[in-house]
Amino acid sequence: MWNPVSENPQYQRSHSAIPDSIQIPEEVFEAAKLTDYAVSSRYPGIVEPITDSEYKMALESAKFVFEWVSDSIMSSE
Fold it and tell me: Cα(39)–Cα(3) distance, rounded to whole angstroms?
């Protein structure tokens, strides 16, 4: 499946150091959507405020990524 995040040259450079033994879950790629919220919070008024359901989804996504990274670091030590 084509993934717009993995097709990005910046992604390819920054992730080339990740060992093949680490499998990146699809949810981590989907978390790239969180960038939209970072932009909208930095430049308020450009987009409409997020809904409660969008907020909950973003929070769960960020939580998943944080826990996955934490677990990955702990298991590699």
Answer: 21
CA gap 67, 49 in Å, rounded: 27
Q: Is 20 helix (H, G, I), strand (E, B) or coil?
A: coil
CB-based contacts of 47, cutoff 8 Å, min separation 6: 36, 40
Integer Cα distance of 77 and 10 in angstroms? 27
Q: What is the pLDDT of residue 4?
A: 53
Longest dimension (CA), the chain: 44
Say whether pLDDT at 13 is over 70.
Answer: no
Question: Which of 58, 38, 60 lies closest to 47, judged by CA?
Answer: 38
Q: What is the pTM of this model?
A: 0.67
Provide the pLDDT confidence category of residue 14 given band limits of 50, 70 and 90: low
